[in-house]
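Postdoc handover notes: sequence design on the structure in folder B. Input tokens:
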């Protein structure tokens, strides 16, 4: 098959790439002024150890005085603790409201003990310079924690309390995301990985921070919502037939490693990043996580968000513009409508008027569509017509 587009055909992408690189060189991608934000740079190992020691010391000091110790966390589930910066995304402010886990309270004493146990496990990992997955830690004390979800929540709370990314605690998570295309890198163990596009993809590494010697001639990165669409792009040799590019999927709501990987690609390559999502509230929300982050991980926004992401498709307006058959569209459910209403109230929608317009179109027509709906136009419409034209003429918002 002949390449679908030549270099000159990607005019809109090339222009965007030049603008992005010039903005990086000029240093315009900086944090806005205003309210002080939480620490952007992670703590070193010695600082993490000292922070844990201080918590334990305070606990014993309270007990020695006959007082009940208290562990204080910033609330990760409150919009009051979040501010929006269009250069970074959703960030946790420094003077935020807190929640307290009290030792003398019968409802929280078990959680208090679990937090101390988790801190001791983290301390050993950092002190010995070893790493473990969340799953490893859970299986060391399955009866104590009861479920993986409980431990996961405690780890996230500890990260927020110490204001450090999870990787600084030497805790890794199993990746579910995949990556393919024009990309090579060296993993921490020295293994050289080639993500050249073929029938299979490469699993996003568990330790993204350990990646070195990242090389690519890609002109853009395409973030795909679903694995099914990702596999279709692989099957159609999208990465080679269109133009050198990288495709990434978090297989739905992205895991931490996939978000870290996407941010690393931006930090190193400084090339355009586009989102290919279903035209539904869930797809929009997933795109927003990649672009602006999530409330629960707002304390680590600087290493997780990619605010330059453009919404390539599937746009609700595309459904009308392309005359997608009504029989392949899906009515919005009550849950969809509620999610769409909440999305329209998010702080970043105000700075994205074109996004707001697309949401209003969806709200008015009360219909949604999956990427696969384009197959009703022709079996290869996505890769031979839709994406090439979008990239050639700048059809993203």
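Designed sequence:
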């Amino acid at each position: 098959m002949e390449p679908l587009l030549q270099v000159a055909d990607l005019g809109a992408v090339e222009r965007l790439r030049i603008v992005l690189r010039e903005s990086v060189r000029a240093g315009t991608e900086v944090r806005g002024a205003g309210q002080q934000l939480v620490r952007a740079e992670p703590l070193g190992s010695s600082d993490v150890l000292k922070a844990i020691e201080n918590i334990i010391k305070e606990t014993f000091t309270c007990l020695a005085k006959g007082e009940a110790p208290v562990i204080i966390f910033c609330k990760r589930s409150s919009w009051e603790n979040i501010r929006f910066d269009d250069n970074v995304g959703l960030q946790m402010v420094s003077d935020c409201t807190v929640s307290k886990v009290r030792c003398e309270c019968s409802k929280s004493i078990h959680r208090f003990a679990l937090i101390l146990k988790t801190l001791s496990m983290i301390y050993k990992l950092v002190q010995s310079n070893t790493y473990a997955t969340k799953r490893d830690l859970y299986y060391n004390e399955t009866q104590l924690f009861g479920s993986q979800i409980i431990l996961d929540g405690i780890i996230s709370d500890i990260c927020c309390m110490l204001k450090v990314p999870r990787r600084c605690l030497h805790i890794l998570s199993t990746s579910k995301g995949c990556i393919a295309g024009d990309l090579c890198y060296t993993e921490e163990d020295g293994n050289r990985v080639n993500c050249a596009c073929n029938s299979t993809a490469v699993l996003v590494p568990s330790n993204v921070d350990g990646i070195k010697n990242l090389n690519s001639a890609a002109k853009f990165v395409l973030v795909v919502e679903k694995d099914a669409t990702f596999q279709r792009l692989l099957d159609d040799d999208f990465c080679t037939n269109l133009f050198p590019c990288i495709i990434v999927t978090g297989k739905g709501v992205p895991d931490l490693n996939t978000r870290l990987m996407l941010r690393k690609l931006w930090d190193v390559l400084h090339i355009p990043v586009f989102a290919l999502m279903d035209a539904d509230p869930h797809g929009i929300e997933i795109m927003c996580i990649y672009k602006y982050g999530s409330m629960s991980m707002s304390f680590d926004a600087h290493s997780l968000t990619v605010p330059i992401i453009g919404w390539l498709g599937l746009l609700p307006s595309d459904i009308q513009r392309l005359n997608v058959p009504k029989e392949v569209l899906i009515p919005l459910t009550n849950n969809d409508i509620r999610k769409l209403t909440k999305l329209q109230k998010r702080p970043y929608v105000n700075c994205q008027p074109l996004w707001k317009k697309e949401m209003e179109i969806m709200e008015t027509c009360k219909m949604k569509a999956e990427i696969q709906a384009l197959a009703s136009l022709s079996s290869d419409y996505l890769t031979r017509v839709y994406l090439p034209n979008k990239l050639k003429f700048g059809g993203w918002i």
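Context for whoever picks this up: The longest strand covers residues 70-74. Don't rerun without checking with the PI first.
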